[in-house]
TrEMBL record:
It is an enzyme of class 2 (transferase). It comes from Lysobacter panacisoli. It comes from the Bacteria. PROSITE patterns: HIS_KIN. This is histidine kinase.
Length: 365
């Protein structure tokens, strides 16, 4: 019998399914030799599959499939579990020079067929339950974090507005700044959540050709408000107006916006945030450079994991970089990070290069 990984199961647990199954096969063979051979179907189940019917082998095989799933086995190992038993029986018969009759082998195959079918069916059912529970848990966790952050920002904005309404302070003062920051943060949360919904739902991309120059202008316009509110200098480089990318503009804007939000969040106060776009061979690169001071060795890639946050500012869900990477990869791009010790991080969006005019050329072709 082929040796297979038992994943730490004890002998008693391994024998549960096989020992009971062997006993059921023996009883089935015995009943087949009586005057009422059809009584064996109560144990083995009927041949040929079809509509499920109650049988002892079906019941215990289902329990065995559930047990193997709970101990981390794969569905292939569930099938091989019974296949190994069949191989062991035939090998033992050969070694003892015992001939297995055709009817006996037919009955053994019926028992194995029904056992495998029921074990695999229950294995799949139990696995679906585990997956559904995990998805529900992850969804509840994300919804909980999102609701918490939205409530905090909305509460802050409401309080600031109440103070301004009372007339004791002006809209241009510090309280107005609090209101402005809260509204900016609310907008960021909503934009990031919409991008995550699109990526999770697998909605089709709305790809189109557009100028990188125009895209950076839009990105600068939307990010300038947050830069001013937080006290940062935002510098966006000039780029050849003919350089273009062909991607889902909303997803790219969301990804780049997340990178800028991350830069504003972790950079030293009153620092400079830079956005530079340039072409290298057949690629368009967009760098977002912050002044966070750099990262400890080995921490760069960890930032892309969901619910991961670094630094003292723990606001947000810890999903921004994870969503950004998914959005870029969905557009045949790459999002990477380079650590600059003592200075900060450079996040790079790498996309296929196009030029304005490609759209008409493609249409002619």
């Amino acid at each position: 019998m082929e040796a297979r990984s038992v994943r730490g199961l004890s002998g008693a647990e391994l024998e549960h399914g096989i020992s009971v199954f062997l006993d059921q096969v023996i009883r089935t063979l015995e009943l087949e030799r009586t005057a009422a051979p059809l009584q064996s179907r109560r144990i083995s189940g009927r041949a040929g599959g079809g509509k499920p019917a109650l049988s002892e082998i079906g019941d215990t095989a289902a329990q065995h499939g559930k047990e193997l799933m709970q101990h981390g086995f794969t569905v292939e190992e569930v099938v091989h579990d019974y296949g190994d038993l069949c191989q062991a029986i035939t090998d033992l018969a050969f070694e003892l020079d015992v001939q297995i009759e055709v009817d006996e082998f037919r009955i053994l195959n019926r028992c194995l067929d029904n056992a495998i079918a029921n074990a695999v069916t229950e294995f799949g059912y139990q696995r679906d339950i585990v997956v559904a529970d995990q998805h529900a848990h992850d969804l509840n966790a994300r919804l909980g974090f999102l609701a918490h952050e939205l409530r905090n920002q909305l509460s802050t904005a409401t309080l600031a507005l109440s103070v301004i309404r009372n007339g004791s302070v002006g809209i241009s003062g510090a309280t107005g700044g609090v209101l402005e920051r809260s509204l900016v943060n609310l907008g960021n949360l909503i934009d990031r959540s919409l991008a995550e919904v699109r990526m999770t739902a697998g909605l089709p991309l709305q790809s189109r050709l557009f100028s990188v120059h125009d895209f950076l202008a839009e990105l600068k316009l939307s990010a300038s408000l947050e830069a001013n509110v937080r006290g940062f200098t935002l510098k966006v480089s000039d780029v050849d107006p003919l350089l273009a990318v062909e991607v889902d503009r909303d997803l790219l804007l969301s990804a780049a916006g997340n990178l800028l939000q991350n830069a504003f969040k972790f950079s030293h106060p009153h620092g400079e945030i830079s956005v530079n776009a340039y072409a290298v061979a057949d690629r368009i690169l967009i760098d977002v450079e912050d002044q966070c001071g750099g990262l400890p060795s080995g921490d760069a890639e960890k930032m892309f994991l969901p619910f991961t946050q670094a630094g003292q500012d723990r606001t947000g869900l810890g999903l921004g970089l994870s969503i950004s990477r998914s959005s870029i990869e969905a557009n045949s791009g790459v999002l990477s990070v380079r650590n600059v010790p003592g200075t900060g991080c450079v996040f790079t969006i790498d996309l296929p290069r196009h030029a304005l005019g490609d759209e008409s050329a493609n249409a002619e072709q």
